[in-house]
Amino acid sequence: MTSKKTLAEKTAEAIKAMIQKDHYEPGQKLPTEKELCEMLNVGRNTLREAERILQSHNIVTIRQGSGTYISEKYGVADDPFGFDMYPDHNRLTGDILEVLAFMEPEIVAIAAEKRDQHDIERMEDCLNQMAQKVDQGLSCIDEECEFYRLIADSSHNIVMERMTPLLTQGIRFFASTLQQKDFLYATRNYRQVLSGIKHQKAVDAKLTMSYHLLFLRRQYLELLQRASIDY
Known about the structure:
Elements: H1 7-21, H2 33-40, H3 44-56, E1 60-63, E2 67-70, H4 89-114, H5 117-135, H6 141-154, H7 158-175, H8 180-198, H9 202-226
Antiparallel strand pairs: 1-2
């Protein structure tokens, strides 16, 4: 038996439909509370509860004293696979790297076919920032994960764009164990990947990324073995 939806839940669905219909973008502000109440014919308490429902699903962000905005996460849950609650991060990291090794090269190949000039410029900027941090001896984990996200964006495939940030959790876990020389090696490989994407050489880009990820996973397994961790 289906439970009856509350007025707040129905209002949340109406706001969500409006967001989709009017093509709201992340960061864009919704109409004021007064305007939404009039549009949806509901009271302020109902509207506020509806907005809290949408915020819990990362669809909107409520900024006290400013208004309600479309969330940058745009409906993507913070941890939909429950990775943060998995007790064995060593096992989880290895498994994510394994999945990444056969998924990411295919994403790279599609990006090489579909990328545009704006995509290329963003990836180049990201790698330049990563290289700069490597030269300064600083952590560049954020830039590395951002590079994977930008590759997914360049595929112009919605599913890939949504899945890649989840998979890069493995990169983030693993990267915390790396030394600066490893990041220097990674930066060089990523520049080769980008070169393949830029010149639409899908096979070259795919093979370079495949080799790099297999190397990372092998290196990670060796790290676990040295630490006497049974993976």
